[in-house]
Amino acid sequence: MSMEHFPPLMFLGLIVIMLLGFPVAFSLATLGLGCGAFAVWMGWFQPAFMSNLPLNVFGILSNDLLLAIPFFTLMGAVLEKCGLAEDMLDSMGQLFGPIRGGLGYSVIIVGFILGAITGTVAGQVIAMAMISLPVMMRYGYNMRYATGVLAASGTITQLVPPSLVLVVLADQLGRSVGDMYKGAWGPSILQILIFLLYTFIVSRVRPEWVPGVAATERTLQGWALWRKCLRGIIPSAVLIFAVLGSMGGLPGIDTAVATPTEAGALGAFVLAAMHGRLTWPLVQGAMVGTMRLTAMVVFILIGSRVFSLVFQGVDGGIWIEHLLSGLPGGQTGFLIVVNIFVFFLAFFLDFFEIAFIILPMLAPVADKLGIDLVWFGVLLCVNMQTSFMHPPFGFALFYLRGISDTMFKNGSLPRKVETRDLYMGAIPWVLMQLLLVVIVIFVPETVTTFLDKKVDVDVEAATQMLQDVDTAEPGASEAAASDPTAALEAATAASAEEDPMAVFQDAAKDDAKK
């Protein structure tokens, strides 16, 4: 066997072990070490090559950017358990309830707000289902619409900044987290508008699916209702802007002034304390959940690094590059094929596994094709949110299935939610998410509009201009020697008329306009 035939076999083995159901992190490490031993035995690289593995792993784990994983997870866990979702859903439900589809609107809007401050699909879907599903069933909402909107509004948390997915993608693509956040604002807002438009169309075409709630059913009216809504929205908005602004994740802000530690976890504790629910059991539960997720991510990262080191050692990167760069259609063809590939991978893998295993193979090819990696990362994030929704392995559907069964058993729901209603109800929302993928591919301005415009300065032209300004006219040195005072006055007048720094700045502006 020659080395050029080995990368396809490694890639095929990667797919096989993913389908086995054994923990991916350990499967990847085992496959990588086994293939590495075989490559050494075949003489494709020296045993010393594998000695790079410990340094490689420690180099990855010492990346300060990955601190965002435990601290953003802790932020989401604290806010998930402090009852913020319950307060916001109750107030929004009463505000929009009398409108046809009003409960659907409230679930979508609250999902967007909670997605920006919690970042946990499981907690968000469970919390919203516990509050909204009994109300929707009581007032005759179509079961497929109800389950679909609850699952979809929970998955939007993967796209709305400050999403943990975007942090991981920024790390793998070598781009700043702030740029990834800015680029994600357009698609996330557009996704919410598509969801709201679908609900509006359903309320007109099938009004019996989304009936309004009688105004007499509201327990709050007038200013008391608005005050409760604002009590949940304003502190949440302050936390969102504090986190994003501190990390340079808002349009117009390009400087990070705080670490993920300061920006995320501290704000969550303050918000929980404002609601009077900051207790030791809450903190303990949040820390345990954070520890589990962080440990899972670290092991996936180590396993993927073992595999990728050997894969690159046998020129797997070159094989991937040749395979994908020769696709018809150039950039568009590459993006379409990659998104189809990622969409089907998401049936079996979660976003961490896709980001750590697949993205390092795709990013160099995208960069060589001239694709903006921030746009590429946001596009993949839009795609990967479908991994929580599409049957049969959508985790959001599993969470909804579990909590609905529990609620039926304890009497909170009048009837059991059927599995077919969950799967059939998810299909329209998955199609809307795929529609957003298509929009982002063919309308890249949905991502790039919110990014800071880059100013390209022709350094060589500017340097030459400065040299021309500093170069004296012929005979100036003799005149200066004969009359120093006159030469000094002439130089002062010239510098007043044409300051070299002003010339440099004007040249930079002209180049930027061009």
TrEMBL record:
Segments forming a coiled coil: none
Location of the TRAP C4-dicarboxylate transport system permease DctM subunit domain: 12-445
Bias (Low complexity): 476-495
Membrane topology: Multi-pass membrane protein
Keywords: Cell inner membrane, Cell membrane, Membrane, Transmembrane, Transmembrane helix, Transport
Description of how the protein assembles with itself and partners: The complex comprises the extracytoplasmic solute receptor protein and the two transmembrane proteins.
PANTHER family associated with the record: SIALIC ACID TRAP TRANSPORTER PERMEASE PROTEIN SIAT-RELATED (PTHR33362), SLL1103 PROTEIN (PTHR33362:SF7)
Protein's name according to its UniProt entry: TRAP transporter large permease protein
